[in-house]
Structures are given as C-alpha cells and as structure tokens.
Amino acid sequence: MPRLIGKPIPRFEDLRLLRGKGRYTDDLRLPREVHAVFLRSPHAHAELRSIRRESALGMPGVLAVLSAAEWRADGLKPIPHLPNTIDALDVKKPAFRADNASVIFDERPLPLAEGRVRYVGEPVALVVAETLALAKDAAERVAVDYAPLPAVVSVGDALAPEAPLLHAGAPGNLCLAAEWGDAAATARALGEAVLVVRHDFINQRVANAQMEPRAAIGIVDAESGEHTLIAGSQGAHRQKMALIEALQLPPDKVQVVCPDVGGGFGGRTMVNVEAVLVLWAARRLGRPVRWTSERGEAFLSDYQGRDAVTRAALALDRDGRILALDIALFGNVGAYPVSYVPLANGYRIASTVYRVPAAHMRITGVLTNTVPTGPYRGAGRPEATFVIERLLDIAARRLRLDRLELRRRNLVRREDLPYRTAMGLTFDSGDFLGNMARAAELADWAGFALRRARAAEAGKRRGIALANYVEAPVGAPQEKVIVTVQPDDRIEILTGTQSTGQGHETSFAQVVGEQLGVGAEQIALVSGDTRRLGIGGGTHSDRSMRLAGTLLVEAAAKIIAQGHGLAAFLLDAPERDIEFADGLFRVRDSNRSLGLFDLARALEDRRDLPPELQAPLVAEAQFVGRIPAHPTGAAVCEVEIDGETGRASILRYTAVDDAGQVINPLILDGQIHGGIAQGAGQALMERVVWEHATGQVQSGSFMDYAMPRADDFPNFAVESVEDPTQGNPLRVKGGGEAGTTPAAAAIIGAIADALDVEHVEMPATPERLWSIIHAKREAS
Q1: Cα separation of 699 and 377, whole Å?
Q2: Is the backbone peptide bond immediately before 342 cis, with ω within 30 degrees of 0?
Q3: How far apart (Å, rounded) are the C-alpha atoms in residues 734 and 719?
Q4: Which of 11, 10, 3, 5 is nearest to 730 (CA)?
Q5: Which tens digits make up the pLDDT trace of 593-650?
Q6: Burial grade of 300 (CB within 10 A; 0-12, 13-18, 19 or more)
Q7: DSSP state of 712
Q8: Cis preceding linkage at 2, omega within 30
Q9: Residues 337, 106: contact at Cβ < 8 Å?
Q10: Residue 345 or residue 473, greater confidence
Q11: For residue 194, what are the β-bridge partners?
Q12: Which H or E element spans position 347?
C-alpha cells in the first residue's frame, strides 16, 4: 500500500459539491414547515418604546409575531456567548486571571432586543408565516416606536469622556481591561533605547462574507420533546451547549445537525441569535420553522471581524536589536461581548518570531453601536503580525538598515529552542531564519532592484516587502472520534470536528487509510451531528487535524491491536506470530493472511468465535486538553502602483509555510491561496463603513463593499517546509490561517516601499494611494 499522507489527492467532496449535489441548510425541505423573517432595528441606538403587532397578526397565514416579552414569559435565558474563553480546559471558565484582568461587563443580551436597540440590524421581533412572502409583508405591518439616541461606532468616539453609554453596567463603554508583561522593564528599555518607533495602527473592520449565507431550521417533536436545530456552523456541539442554556432544556432534549457549510472563517463558531429563535418558534408553533439570511441582511447581522486600534512602541539599540515592545490594544467588540479571542490572541502572539527581552501589553474591549465582532481568520494573529512587521520596516528605514538584515538580527534562532517569549508562549520548533531566507530566494529579492528600475522607466512605482509570522492555535479543548471497520469493505470515521470547506472527507481518509492500510476512497466521514456523537470541538484555530488527527492515529492503533487476537484465532496461529502491514494480518514467515475487512466479515458470519473476540471492530478515542503547535513561515509581496490612478497591483506573491507534516499538499495550497486572498482583501479594499453620527451602515451590499476577485492576483509561489514538532504523532501544526496571517503586513509593506513612505493605512485604495502620490509631488 503506497503512502497516503503527503499525497495531493483531489478532494473527494468536490465531485459532489461542484455538481450541485451538496446539501446545505437551505436545500432541506420539511413537511409543514413555515417561514421566519426578522424585523430589525433601523437605528444604531434607540429606546424601544413599544411594538404593535395587531395589524400583522390579523393577516391570513401569519402565525406569530414574537418579541422579548414572550421570551421572558417563557422563562428563557440570554444566549451564553462565553466571551472570555480562549485556552481554559473548562470552556465555561474565564481565560483572564484576576491578577491581570478585570471583566468589567459581562452582561448577556436576550436574542431579541429588550428596552433598547444598540446596533442597526439588531432583531426586534420574529414574524412567522405560511410563506416567506407573507412573512415579509407582515413584518412591514409591525409598528415599532423608537426614540433615537446618540450613537458611537468607533473606539475613539466610544472612549470619549462625554460619549453616550451603551449599557448602564459598563461605565466608559468598557467591557474588558487586561494587562500582561513587565511594565517596569519595558519602560526602562524605552527610556534607554537609541531609537523608539511609535505608531498607531488601525486594523479596520471587515465583513465575514461567506459564500453561503447563514440559515437555520428549528424542529420540535411534540411527543418526545426533542428539539433539533439544523444549521451550518463551525461546531454543532458548541451550538448545542448554547441552546441548552438559553432554552432551559436538558441536554438529551437538544440535538444539532450541521449539513454542508459554505465557509466559516470564525464567524460561525458562536451561536447566532436567529438559530436560537427559530427553534423557540418551532416549539411554540408545533411546526418546523426555517430562516435563510439574505445578503443585505448578512451585512447587518453576521458577526464581523478585526476592528482594532493598536498603540505600539518598539525600542531598539544602535545595532537594531530589539530591546522592548509596548502595546496598547483597543478592540471594538460591538454592542455586546460575543468573543474576546482576537484580543487574547493579540497579546499571546505580540512578539511573534522575534527575540523581545521585555514586553508589556494592555488590552481594552470597547462597546460601540455596531454589530458584535468575533474571531475572523487568524483571530488576532494577523493583527499582531501586522503591528510588529510594520514597526520593523519603519525602524529599518530610520536606522538606514536593510529590512531583511534587521530581521535577521532579531529572529529567534533554532539554537534558542525551546524559546519562551515575553508573553509566555514556548516555541518547540521552527526555522524562522531559514523560512525568511527561502522566501526571499523564491521571490528573487536580489533581483528586485532591476525590476524596480524597469518599472520606473515605464512610469510605475514598484515595491517589495517581507513579513515573518508564527501562530498560536488554541481552540476548543475537547475532541472525540469513533472509527468503525464495516464488512462491506468500508470504514466509517465519526468525528466531533467538522468541515466548512477544508476538505476533511479527503484528508481524514488519508490519515486513517495510511494507518490501516486501506484505500482512502474506502473511508467515509460523518460529522456535524450531535445525535451520532455527544462530544466535539468543531473547526477553528487550526485545531481539526491537530486534535482529531491525533485521535484517529490512536483509534487506528486500537483497531489493529484488536485485530491481532481475532486474526490469530482465524488463522490458527499464536498471536505473537501475527504481523500487520498494508491492511493485512499475516502469520510471520508464511503466506497465510487475512485483510482488515475479512475480520469484519468474520465477526458478522462466524458463530464459533470466543466471547472475548466477538466485539465489532470499533475504536473510540477521546481527548480533553491542549496540544500546542506553532505554525510559522514568511511571505514576500511585490506590488506595482500606477501613479495616474493610484491602483496597486500585486505582481508577485511568495509564501513559505511550515504547517508541520503536510497531509494533502493540494488542500494545504488551496487553504493558503484562500488565506492570501482574504488578507489582500483587507489590505487593499475591504472595509465596513458607518455614517459617523447616526451609525447607519454605508457598506451594506457588494455594491458598496469591495471584495477581491481572481484577476486581482498573480499565480502564487507557495512552498511548504517542515521543522518537525514532537507535540503530536502526525507532526501537524496547522495551515488554515497560514496565508492570512502575514498577508496584510507584506502587502502594505510593499506599498509603503513603492511610495517611499513609512506607512500606509488600510485599505490601500486607489484614492488613498493617489492622494499620497500627489501630496508628495506637490511637496517636492
């Protein structure tokens, strides 16, 4: 049997998905189902005085108009978003310790607005009718009396002394304040440094524009009382936990099914209010209730990403060696705290791959009249990478040092490993210098001067930049798998993690196929169903192959161990003489053998098996804990800017990534390509915009919110390397966020280099770059 791990096998799921055979939530139809529409606030901030629903309820076919009053009357609770969780083994335990943080505000909102609305698009009422068109018409007849209030949409405005307060329990609009590091040592180094680079960086908010809009179907069995939610998400078990608490139900009465999912990127990790509400409505009405988001609705209601302001200072000596890093990170969490993961990751990874002797960091969560933010691909790691890489480029410019040489002097070296950073992370592996050198070589950094000169002759401005990165993936701490060998020459894998487009059906089959010596095409994956498996952590934070892959190796070993005894009996040989290889149990020094599936058929057909050998070939493996890993790499971007239009074009993009042992290069390369595109989207064009005074969303459709397209990119030069980790048997580190993490830093660095300026704010739109070019012309 040839090796399967490391082979670029085309994804099995693509044949189904590309032929339109996928089954997404909106594809499912149920008998007697009815349709839900949400009435959403048109105001960013307003008192909610009354809701009049008589006219809507009088329409034929309208079944319900529900508000927070009915939710309260049913004795239900707020949605438990658990915003503090990041790396605690107990997922309900706050991650911020009392000695370094204070959670100032942890109020959980009801799924429907009560007393006040706090962002445009916040659900106020749920309308259910026999048809979607009728539900929409009825929603227009619900009369809501609002008393508008002043709104704040930015961190700066929300922290202003006279800013309107969003919540009585959150003075100053603060929901979190935390501090890490050595403040005294950092201040001392800043005072003694030859150069201190200070800069405020804005990481603008982006929309989580998945290919598949969110959808949910709620079903309640009147006889059993079982509640079933069908909804695409990044983790069915996390959805179930939230539903149990919000709807006040015993665990055995709640099930969650996740069909195919068209993209997650972090925003589908936490439960959304619409999913909870359709299940509640189904219980009240005794019929399945379905809802599918429209794209304009998604721009108002989907959890969004990024949105942070970082006040940073980097201290260096005369030779360009880093002495200290001081950071104040302000995160816009929106109207309610849903997740603090991006802020927590921002402190954990702040120094990235560089030796920083002293560091100090303060993070602040700020409440604003905007839709809540949550993790978005990389969840704080791209933001941290952007800050330190831009600081280093500015420092190199001021010290008149080569940008790569400055990095060489400060990178953590292999002989330093294991290396513990000032923020407490320990890197067990990673050739950071080697990654940078290889990326520069692949990108032909040495030949750039000639390319720049030729571009200048054509009236273009060309720039190049490099960004190093490392990640600290965490994610949910529990996972489980069940592997079953079936007599029909098939193996079933049941996992608690699930795919949102990562190709699990293929890569998981490669792992199990290699362990058990069977073809990957003989292995089927089942996931996203709490009815089949009671434990799981979902897909996020580069966790799936790292955790589930470890368990798959363990489960396969259990099956092989069980098979030895059965094979010995069937082959009439001592168990010590049984060997397993390439899917066959052989008697040593003979030609007698049985395949894995032969054993499964024998278990079904033979009646003479001893009782101790009659158990089916099924193995479970479960884990609760942490499996640290630190994916790392480097990216080089080369851009060209048209001085007449200000348009920046990415001409070359090179990525060298250490994701650990590569299970499927084709899938990993695709993940990296997609990550680069997301990072480039933020760097060049994506931005959620509000009207400053009223909080009205001005980027509420793809007519107003720019997204990158295929012709915005060159062919990417992507190469995988490995400096092995010993943290898990597959040596997996993770590649789902590799492309995104360094992309914005490399792209903006290249643009700043092309324009011969210290920094350019994101997004680097043609208008912004044209203004910089013409301002420099006028100044000269």
Answers
A1: 21
A2: no
A3: 15
A4: 5
A5: 999 999 999 999 999 999 999 999 999 999 888 888 999 999 999 999 999 999 999 9
A6: buried
A7: G
A8: no
A9: yes
A10: 345
A11: none
A12: helix 341-348
